[in-house]
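Structure ticket #2291
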Amino acid sequence: MPPTPTTHYRTASPETWSLIRGAYLSGLSAPTVGARFGAA
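Resolution: structure written out below.
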C-alpha cells in the first residue's frame, strides 16, 4: 500500500479567515487566496 500523504494545517485568526473568505468570494481562486494569506 502506498504511503499516505501528510497534510499540514495552518491556523489563522478569525479576522484572517474573514479576509480569506472575502477574497475567495470576490472571485479569486483558492490557491491564489491561500498563497496571498499564507494559508496554503
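Closing remark: DSSP finds two helices and no strands in the chain.
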